[in-house]
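Quick note —
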Amino acid sequence: MILDALLAWGTTRFTSVLVDEKPRTVGESNYNFKKLVQETFLVLTGYSTAPLKLASYLGFSATIFGIASFLYVTISYFTVGSIDGFTFLASTILIFSGVQLFALGIFGEYLARIFNRSMEHPTYVIGEITAPKDEQ
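Predicted structure written out below.
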């Protein structure tokens, strides 16, 4: 579990402390490259909806590119004549896989929002309430 996320869920009061960091004098760190990559993916996928948004954007972009290539293939067929079948097949595959990726990202974002609301964390925290000037 990531300590920063647990602290953010448990309190709203934060401060900073200056720490004089010194190099390690005994032993070696237990974090190797593989563990650091695992922790990075845990933070990206466990505490953020950024990968879901990225999937939505990539899916939408692939769909638009597939539609554009399909239009190009169709227009080329009627103006120039017959072209290879692979371009038609590739454009239709790109359209449908882009739509699937886009839908997957949207469903994932909905599930993430439902999950975040079920945890009963406040959407925002009021730091200070001040009275209007006329009430003072």
